[in-house]
C-alpha cells in the first residue's frame, strides 16, 4: 500500500514542534494522538498540554496551549503578526494531558483531557479514580464547555480509551473499568442519550456448550449511521497437557465482531475475524503462529479496518461488513519509525499516522479510501 509522507515535526516545545518524551511525566509512554478531517490534521501533544491544527503541508493553522507548559508562540510576537493572525490562531487554555480527538462535520473539536489532581473524583463501587473529561472547542478553537458522565459539566469519566462522532455530530465516549466497558452517547448539544455498560462477565460466546474459554473485549467503536456499537472480542481456550490432564495455559483461538443494537441491548450479526497466520522455520521445525488483528475503526461506508504487526510494519485488513470481502495490504513502516505510532481512521476511510523516530515525528497517510471506493469529501 503506497504511503504518502506529508510533513515532519521536530522535537521541542515551540508551536510547530512536538514533545513526545517528557522525562518528568508520570506517564510511562507517549500517548499523543492524531486525527484528520477534510485534509486538516489535529495533533494532541499530551506531554506539552497542547493541540495543533495543521494543513497536509505542515503549515500551522491554530494552536491551543497551556501557558504553564509552553512558550508563547513566536508568530504572536512577530512584526507582521496582524497579517499572520488571519491564517494562524493561538488560544490559551489550561490543558493538562490531552489525548483522543474527535472532529464533527461542523468543525467542532472534542478532546479527551485529564483533570488536575484536585478535581479527581472517586467511584467507591468500582474502586477507581475518575480522571477524564471531554473538552469542547468551537471552529475558532475557542473553549465552549466540557462534558462529563451526566453531560455538560458532569462528573469525570473513568479512563477513556476512545472518542468518536457520527453523521449526527453526536459524541460517543468509550471508557474501560475493571468490570466493564462503559459507553456514553451524547447528542451534539451535550445531552446524555444512552449509557451502555458492556460487562465482561456476560459477553456473548461463539462456542457450543462445553469447554473452557476466556474472552476479552479488545475494542468498541460506534456505527456512524445507526444507533449501535461494534464490539470486537478475542477468545482464548484452555490448553490441557495430554499426559497430566492439567491446564498448561491458554492459547488465542479466534476473534469475533458483534453489532450491539443500543435500543434493544442485543448482540447481532456476529462476524468471525480470522487471525493472520505467519509460518516460521528453525532448527526445531516449522511453526505456524496466529497473530491477532486489532480493530482501528469503521468507516462511514461500513468498512472495518484491522491491523497486526509484521516484519514490514503492519498488515492492514479492510473488511466490507456487508459483503464480508476482505482486502489485505502491507503498511510499510521502517524499524526506526516504530519508536511510537499513533494511527487514526477518518470517517471516509483514510488512514493517517504519527510515526515517531529518534529525531523527529513523521505525519503520513495511506489513501485507503481509493481502494474502497471512497474519496475525501
From TrEMBL:
Protein name: 6-bladed beta-propeller
Gene3D superfamilies associated with the record: TolB, C-terminal domain
InterPro entries registered for this protein in UniProt: 6-blade_b-propeller_TolB-like, LIC12708-like
Source domain of life: Bacteria
Lineage: Bacteria, Pseudomonadati, Spirochaetota, Spirochaetia, Spirochaetales
Amino acid at each position: 500500500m503506497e504511503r504518502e509522507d506529508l510533513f515532519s515535526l521536530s522535537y521541542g516545545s515551540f508551536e510547530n514542534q512536538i514533545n513526545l518524551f517528557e522525562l518528568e511525566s508520570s506517564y510511562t509512554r507517549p500517548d499523543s494522538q492524531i486525527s484528520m478531517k477534510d485534509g486538516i490534521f489535529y495533533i494532541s501533544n499530551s506531554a506539552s498540554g497542547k493541540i495543533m491544527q495543521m494543513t497536509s503541508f505542515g503549515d500551522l493553522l491554530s494552536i491551543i496551549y497551556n501557558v504553564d507548559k509552553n512558550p508563547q508562540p513566536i508568530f504572536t510576537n512577530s512584526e507582521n503578526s496582524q497579517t499572520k493572525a488571519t491564517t494562524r490562531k493561538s488560544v490559551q487554555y489550561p490543558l493538562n494531558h490531552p489525548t483522543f480527538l474527535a472532529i464533527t462535520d461542523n468543525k467542532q473539536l472534542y478532546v479527551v483531557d485529564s483533570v488536575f489532581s484536585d478535581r479527581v473524583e472517586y467511584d467507591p463501587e468500582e474502586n477507581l479514580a475518575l480522571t477524564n473529561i471531554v473538552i469542547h472547542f468551537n471552529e475558532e478553537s475557542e473553549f465552549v464547555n466540557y462534558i462529563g458522565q451526566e453531560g455538560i459539566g458532569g462528573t469525570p469519566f473513568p479512563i477513556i480509551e476512545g472518542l468518536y462522532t457520527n453523521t449526527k455530530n453526536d459524541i460517543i465516549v468509550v471508557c474501560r473499568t475493571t468490570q466493564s466497558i462503559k459507553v456514553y452517547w451524547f447528542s451534539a448539544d451535550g445531552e446524555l442519550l444512552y449509557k451502555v455498560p458492556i460487562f465482561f462477565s456476560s459477553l456473548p460466546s461463539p462456542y457450543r456448550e462445553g469447554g473452557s474459554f476466556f474472552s476479552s473485549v479488545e475494542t468498541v467503536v460506534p456505527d456512524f449511521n445507526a444507533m449501535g456499537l461494534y464490539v470486537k472480542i478475542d477468545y482464548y481456550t484452555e490448553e490441557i497437557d495430554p499426559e497430566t490432564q492439567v491446564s498448561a495455559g491458554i492459547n488465542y483461538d479466534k476473534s469475533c465482531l458483534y453489532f450491539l443494537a443500543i435500543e434493544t441491548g442485543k448482540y447481532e450479526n456476529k462476524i468471525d475475524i480470522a487471525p493472520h497466520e505467519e509460518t516460521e522455520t528453525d532448527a526445531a521445525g516449522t511453526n505456524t503462529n496466529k497473530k491477532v488483528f486489532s480493530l482501528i475503526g469503521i468507516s462511514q461506508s461500513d468498512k472495518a479496518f484491522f491491523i497486526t504487526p509484521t516484519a514490514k510494519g503492519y498488515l492492514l485488513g479492510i473488511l466490507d461488513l456487508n459483503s464480508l470481502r476482505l482486502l489485505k495490504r502491507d503498511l510499510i513502516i521502517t524499524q526506526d519509525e516504530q519508536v511510537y505510532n499513533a494511527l487514526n481512521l477518518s470517517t471516509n476511510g483514510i488512514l493517517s499516522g504519527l510515526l515517531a523516530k529518534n529525531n523527529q515525528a513523521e505525519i503520513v497517510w495511506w489513501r485507503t479510501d481509493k481502494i474502497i471506493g471512497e474519496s475525501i469529501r
